[in-house]
Amino acid sequence: xxxxxxxxxxxxxxVKDHDxxxxxxRIHAAYDASTIAMGASIACSGTCLTVVGFxxxxxGGCWFDIDAAxxxxxxxxxxxxxxxxxxxxxxxxxxxxxxxxxxxxxxxxGVADVIARDDIxxxxxxxxxATAKFSIRVPRELAKFVVxxxxxxxxxxxxxxxxxxxxxLTVLLIPHTLEVTTWGxxxxxxxxxxxxxxxxxxxxxxxxAHAQGY
Length: 214
What we know:
Layout: E1 8-19, E2 22-29, E3 41-44, E4 47-56, E5 62-69, H1 70-75, E6 86-91, E7 110-120, E8 131-137, E9 151-154, E10 157-160, E11 163-165, E12 168-173, H2 175-180, E13 191-196, H3 198-211
């Protein structure tokens, strides 16, 4: 499980296809290699992936390898990652960790499309920087799971939904989030992994079952 609080930005260093159904990807990160274990789960831009190899880097930080199967490549943005692609990273929760965002499984539901970015310039004279409002179209089958003031995980970032209009939601990101995640580079046309709130999913299923007489 994860919280949607990004702890590092990783960079894709190597991509190798084993065959048509499996791709191995090497990621460089700032994590201490001694804290990573084989089989560990790391959320990579919202996708829960398993560490299949790791080590230290001479310049500091670590590298780790993950294998992405055909289903992951087809249903997430992982299939588009190339050398140099920057991705949000989060280590799996430990007992006692602070739950700063919302419960996220890392099981991506689909890919959403950014249709607009509006930067809101700071006019107060402070040095905090600009905020940014993003309008995002979600897959139609997921629209019923997004609600105003509800939670959503987009590229592994836990965010509060500002508004919903049919299959388009908006989120507002503060300068800090734009700086410490990949969101600073997100523009209209970008694609994002989306995981809907688990509570919304269960509520929708309960309502559906009730309507069907179960």
